[in-house]
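Long-time lurker, first post. I've been practising inverse folding by hand and with some scripts of my own, and I keep getting stuck on stretches where the structure tokens seem ambiguous. Below is the full token string for one chain I'm working on. Before anyone asks, I'm not after the true native sequence, just a reasonable design that respects the backbone. If someone could post their per-position residues I'd love to compare against what I wrote down in my notebook.
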């Protein structure tokens, strides 16, 4: 990060610092702040905002992507130097494994534990709380797959999508209920005098995220415009014995392929070339389809949206490889590597596509299907 700042790339340095150090540290601190008091049967102060912000930070903590970047950089450096892994590498690997376990933890259980503690301390019925605690939780179905039962615009006239004329179940939206995006509680938005605020975590409630399709489309257009210089401009400048050479993303893929490291070439190509292209195409499709209200293949589109959310962060791999290579290669007049303008453009593409994915409201996918089911063409 210091090397990036010294070479005039403070924005790239900030991206690397936040995603590999600051956000993981804040996430670990939030886990400790929440879990230790809950274990002792107490609800810590500011529980809701801490847990709410921890959920928002989760996608931006990229230690596993950084670990893959370390491995790619080590393989790349073996052609010019003898690389000896230090103890910090193994410690970082252990940290990655532990954070992976934490990422698989259901945060909904923490909200329920907090409610149980408050009920017990506030004079709730201990027997009822105990029964709820020891009753196995039924696994929640995937939200996008069942969101069509939550998003009908007219429950009275809605019929099933199979076309057999069966009346659809009454939806939460038709009943005037909203589900919180943060803690998943379903509630009436007008129950609170403060307005459409979640009664549990304080998050703002929306039937649909305001201008979701338009904002997603704007972010996708910006990312697509930056994707061109990200691939055409060099991400690194290499100088060795007075000879200068520019390195682009595709040049790095070609280097690994011609060197015989075809598995790494495939990994870098998928993470840095294929995934960004697919993200842009899928997000553009989602924004256009949501804007037009098309009922076309809602289940497949919902699955594509979940896929984009899961794999989008891995595109940051090339940015991490650039940062690590620049920090390691300082051989004076013999060899030096400096960052190129393509690194900033590519980092911006990753950030913008992740923001576009978060901005898109997947419930819009099912609105068109519900309208089509409620008013089938004759």
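-- Answer (accepted) --
I ran through it position by position. Result:
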């Amino acid at each position: 990060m210091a090397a990036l700042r010294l070479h005039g790339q403070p924005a790239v340095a900030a991206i690397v610092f936040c995603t590999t150090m600051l956000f993981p540290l804040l996430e670990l601190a939030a886990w400790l702040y929440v879990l230790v008091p809950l274990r002792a049967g107490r609800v810590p102060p500011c529980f809701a905002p801490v847990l709410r912000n921890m959920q928002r930070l989760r996608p931006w903590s990229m230690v596993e992507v950084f670990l893959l970047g370390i491995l790619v950089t080590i393989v790349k450096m073996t052609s010019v130097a003898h690389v000896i892994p230090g103890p910090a590498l193994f410690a970082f690997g252990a940290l990655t494994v532990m954070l992976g376990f934490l990422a698989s933890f259901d945060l909904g259980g923490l909200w329920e534990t907090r409610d149980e503690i408050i009920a017990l301390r506030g004079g709730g019925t201990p027997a009822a709380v105990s029964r709820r605690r020891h009753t196995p939780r039924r696994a929640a179905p995937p939200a996008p797959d069942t969101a069509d039962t939550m998003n009908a615009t007219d429950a009275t006239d809605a019929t099933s999508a199979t076309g057999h004329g069966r009346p659809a179940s009454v939806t939460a939206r038709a009943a005037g209920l909203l589900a919180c995006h943060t803690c998943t509680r379903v509630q009436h938005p007008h129950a609170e005098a403060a307005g459409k605020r979640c009664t549990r975590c304080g998050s703002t409630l929306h039937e649909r995220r305001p201008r979701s399709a338009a904002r997603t489309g704007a972010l996708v257009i910006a990312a697509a415009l930056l994707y061109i210089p990200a691939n055409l401009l060099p991400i690194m400048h290499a100088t060795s014995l007075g000879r200068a050479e520019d390195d682009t993303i595709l040049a790095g893929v070609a280097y690994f392929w011609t060197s015989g490291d075809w598995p790494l070439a495939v990994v870098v190509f998928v993470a840095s070339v294929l995934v960004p292209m697919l993200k842009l195409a899928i997000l553009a499709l989602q924004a256009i389809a949501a804007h037009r209200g098309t009922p076309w293949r809602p289940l497949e589109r919902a699955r594509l949206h979940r896929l984009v959310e899961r794999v989008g962060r891995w595109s940051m791999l090339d940015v991490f490889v650039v940062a690590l290579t620049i920090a390691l290669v300082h051989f004076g007049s013999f060899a030096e590597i400096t960052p190129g303008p393509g690194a900033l453009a590519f980092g911006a593409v990753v950030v913008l596509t992740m923001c576009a994915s978060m901005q898109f409201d997947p419930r819009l996918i099912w609105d068109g299907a519900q309208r089509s089911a409620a008013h089938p063409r004759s």
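A couple of notes from the structure itself: The first helix runs from residue 2 to 6. Residues 146-208 form one domain. Happy to go over any region you disagree with.
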